[in-house]
């Protein structure tokens, strides 16, 4: 199961933005161009099923190793085939952001700058003014071959664009057919250095409250047993990660295969925790199994890897899974973070 028309990223520039307010399935619509063709980005701002308000998180200073790779893309639509460890988005495995920071927001509220339509519009209007590069991840339509009818929103022809610009896993019911790993949608915007703004990346991520944030590594289907990492609900306390990744030595002196790379963990909970059969996972989803490790409250341990498990010097991710393969914590780092040999990154 996966997106039926494939998955990829459109590198483009924004021409115009339009808010939608229909009650059925409103989207924030963006007219974009890659310099050759026109496209429309259809960004969901409301669910068609309860709870209706979308979850969102916007990182105003996004730092992740994929941005270096995105800058190298040509303008236009790029299909993403080699998803694992590449530029494909995965909200759970890619350590793009802390999912516990996602919040629900209505698509239409009285007043100014207080709903999801208006929030997205701020970034799109700034992108238009600054000629920022936009990277829209999702499912294409009308690209191969292009559709001949005019676009229903902006009128350009032929009609083509990108939708499903949101998390595409963890769904149940009729939307489960779209589940998959490393195929999540999202919007990344690279603003150039223009006064009074500096060169910066902004990332916007969206999900439905009906989706699960614990999914199978192969299918993207929900894992029934949940352990408190769903986005917060009113009146429900936020569960903290019991074990955290706090540091890593990724670029040691000498040969990286000489068993010098390491990750440091801390038990932030008040309980003793047995880490037997827990796993540390790299950006290629290779897993390093922990054995005979126990942490007392506040305890710290440095895990040193063997030559068969390595962390990329080109930037990557580090995740921690418990014995039930549920993600407990995750971090990311860039090539710039580890350019100095022998230094340990503190997350």
Summary, kept brief:
This protein is mainly beta and 347 residues long. Helix content is 6%, strand content 31%.
Strand count:
20
Main sheet attributes: strand count, strand direction, barrel closure? 5 strands, mixed, barrel
Low-confidence stretches: 234-238
Instruction: Please state the overall shape, judged from the principal axes of the Cα atoms.
Output: globular
Question: Main attributes?
Answer:
2 domains; Immunoglobulin-like; globular; 6% helix; 347 residues; 31% strand; 2 helices; 20 strands
Structure description:
The protein starts with 7 loop residues before the first strand and ends with a strand. It has two domains: 8-207, no CATH class; 243-346, Sandwich (Immunoglobulin-like). The longest helix is centred in the middle third of the chain and has 15 residues, at 116-130. The chain is built from two helices and 20 strands. Strands 1-2-3-8-7 form a five-stranded mixed barrel. A four-stranded antiparallel β-sheet has the order 17-12-11-20, with no helix packed on it. The protein has a four-stranded antiparallel β-sheet with strand order 15-14-18-19, with no helix packed on it. With 347 residues, it is mainly β.
